[in-house]
Design goal:
By secondary structure, this protein is mainly α. It has a domain of about 70 residues. It has 1 helix and no strands. The chain starts with 9 loop residues before the first helix and ends in a 34-residue tail after the last helix.
Length: about 110
């Protein structure tokens, strides 16, 4: 015997609760997703610029300090009135006769 569609039996209750659980899971997922998106957007808009600014200032101070120390050391070595000769080696390669063997060749005419 078949039950009329308006009556709730065990099968209809299971389907109804499954749909309810699915809807609750979907709503929970949507809320978590939008809250996470909102928190990340706030972080990237307000907190991240301060962190990056701090990092880049620190790095630029370190580079400036290293450059100043290098220039200070260079100025200590080269004092005014002293003659400084800097030697820079020549990077071009000079080929001597001992480096290789010269092979004489003749061009052939194509006939």
């Amino acid at each position: 015997m078949r039950n009329p569609p308006g009556l709730l039996n065990a099968r209809n209750i299971i389907n109804f609760t499954g749909l309810k659980v699915f809807r609750m899971g979907l709503i929970r997922f949507a809320i978590i997703f939008f809250l996470t998106y909102f928190i990340i957007s706030l972080f990237s808009r307000y907190v991240l610029p301060f962190v990056l600014r701090f990092f880049f200032r620190r790095m630029s101070d370190r580079v400036r300090r290293d450059y100043e120390n290098k220039m200070r050391e260079k100025n200590k070595k080269e004092r005014e009135g002293e003659v400084t000769i800097r030697y820079r080696p020549d990077n071009s390669k000079i080929i001597t006769k001992d480096d290789g063997e010269y092979i004489d060749y003749e061009e052939l005419d194509d006939k």
